Amino acid sequence: MPKNFFKVLLIWLVVEFIVSFLISQVNIYYSNKLSDGVYSMSDLGSILIVLGFFSLVIKGLTLGLGLRHLVRSNNHKVSLGAIFSFVGAFIIIPFIISTALTFYYYKSGYYEGTTDSFDIQQLYLVAATNFVISLMMVLITFTVAGQWRIFRKAERNGWKSLVPILSMVETTQIAKKPTSWVFFLFIPFINIIVYILLLSALAKTFKKDGLFALGLFFLPFIFFPILGFGDSKYIYAENKIEKDELNIEDHLVGDTGL
After folding, report:
1. What pLDDT is recorded for position 124?
2. Distance CA 232, CA 256 (A)
């Protein structure tokens, strides 16, 4: 574990808490407007959806900047376990604290008039929903980070792994398969077979076997990071990549410029 792991984690958790607090205050403001009859329930629902999406975007940005800070401050010598621990702690700790505070405020009557509009069962439902969302964010982050690093190993722009159709095209090229395979990925049932074959070809380009390809299919949040952050080398790489500096210019300009 890097020596400054907890320091970096604490810094970005504070940033996350500040942003989350500001967003929660906006939520309370509009909830009070609903009680005053200024907004209808449908208006409030639309506002909360927008705020929820904005909150996820901010959380993703702060998580990415936090990982960047951790990697750069340790001269890019950060283990896969440290990255997993950072992401997990960054998402789970705020969830635990926010859930605990929500129940505390409910019990203390902090919500005043709004507490009569929902009961404790609804709070449990909200907490469970938030837990599922937080868990999904952890798994998605692991998968995306692994895919980004795989693209970098294959001397491709990391940001291309984030663009749905473009990432498929790039993956077929990395796996040395026809780009036309992307078309079959949109055909029900056939797409499953083609995707497994594509993952198998991708695994082989990193000297991995068919069992590893099945891992990529069934447990992508585990096997993509292993492939991306592990010691596996892309067999068709023309230039040796010593490290991934996570410079935005490095990913946006040039496919092989390091």
Report:
1. 72
2. 18
